[in-house]
Design a protein that fits this description.
Length: 334
């Protein structure tokens, strides 16, 4: 990853996301349906060939953002461009393209491998279905291609006739990865691909994803709670809080010099391997619970938990701005 850091940093954008929103309408209680502001105006780019790490507490909207930019969820507002092609524009909805050709280029690996594989289909059928949808390898090399994919993810051709429940969690995630790879994608949303796995096999799966990236020139959006996971694999990192991105920057810079108070809090919770340094490290404990995305605070959404909040933070939404070259922050105190 380090070797081609420079090219990536100077590289062109594969995906451009502007003011993307996904609001869910739920229920119909006494006061009518409620709105969940799951993703609430997010702007960032993903560069060709990079790993963009996306982190934040549970429920902050990471999965929703990943699915909305793929249009697996239809966005509520904003624009998404893929390699120069507009795939969603809120102002031109009638002309938004059919997604099938893009589905081949943009894949997803799911958070929960067991739930993402159809229990009634064999592994061969699962991978074969991805080939069939996109009319790839339809001839006599179809079986070879399935075996080759199984081999690539560390399984073998005998696994082809078995069902998902016959595999361990790590193997199920490998099947999910083979399914994503089958269609020769350029971009993969990796939605917490290792968080459901046993610690002992997490690094195997991460290493495999990194090797595949080098080999195939893939671009990743890598979602994680755990900053220690994304630290090693991400070129750039975006931090989300309650539906918004609050900070984005180069991975090394984000660790060495985080700017947003929320990023500082997240980083203070990451253990340092040296026990002495770890004991002496100052932890910042956030006051209060994460507010509900159905009723987010006005102004800066973080103000209810921020130790530095002032009056302006309670009233005005902070602007998302570039404070250093390539380093973006939304905070009134910066
Ligand atoms: N289909 C849906 N309908 C209604 N609300 C939803 C839906 N999907 C997600 N939400 C809500 O949107 C918010 C963001 O959820 P999301 O799954 O994107 O969070 P996340 O950051 O991926 O969390 P985790 O780290 O736990 O996976 C949550 O409040 C969630 O309850
Ligand atoms: Mg999620």
């Amino acid at each position: 990853m380090e070797n081609n850091q420079m090219t990536k940093e100077n590289g062109s954008n594969l995906i451009q996301i502007k003011n993307l929103k996904k609001h869910f309408k739920i229920g119909g209680g006494l006061k009518g349906p409620k709105t969940v502001y799951a993703v609430d105006g997010v702007t960032f780019d993903i560069k060709k060939g990079e790993t963009f790490g996306l982190v934040g507490e549970s429920g902050c909207g990471k999965t929703t953002l990943g699915r909305t930019l793929l249009r697996l969820y239809e966005p509520t507002a904003g624009t998404v461009t893929y390699d120069g092609d507009v795939i969603f524009d809120e102002n031109n909805k009638k002309n938004n393209p059919k997604m099938l050709p893009f589905r081949r280029k943009m894949q997803i690996i799911f958070q929960d491998p067991s739930a993402s594989l159809d229990p009634r289909m064999t592994v061969g059928e699962i991978i074969g279905e991805a080939l069939d949808i996109h009319k790839l390898h339809q001839g006599k090399d179809r079986a070879d291609r399935i075996n080759q994919l199984l081999d690539r993810v560390g399984l073998n051709s005998e696994h082809s006739n078995r069902y998902p429940h016959e595999f361990s969690g790590g193997q199920q995630q490998r099947i999910g990865i083979a399914r994503a790879l089958a269609v020769e994608p350029e971009f993969i949303v990796c939605d917490e691909p290792i968080s459901a796995l046993d610690v002992s096999i997490q690094s195997q799966v991460v290493n495999m994803l990194e090797d595949m990236q080098d080999e195939l020139g893939l671009t990743y959006l890598f979602i994680a709670h755990d900053l220690s996971v994304v630290r090693h694999i991400s070129d750039r990192i975006g931090v989300m809080y309650l539906g918004n991105m609050v900070e984005l920057g180069n991975g090394r810079e984000m660790y060495a010099d985080p700017i947003h108070p929320y990023t500082k809090t997240l980083l203070s919770a990451v253990p340092i391997p040296d026990p002495k340094a770890n004991r002496e490290k100052k932890r910042i404990i956030l006051e209060g619970e994460i507010p509900s995305p159905m009723n987010p605070p006005k102004g800066c959404k973080f103000h209810t938990r921020c130790p530095f909040a002032t009056d302006v933070c309670k009233q005005e939404v902070p602007e998302w701005r570039e404070v250093k070259d390539g380093h973006f922050v939304a905070c009134h105190n910066v």
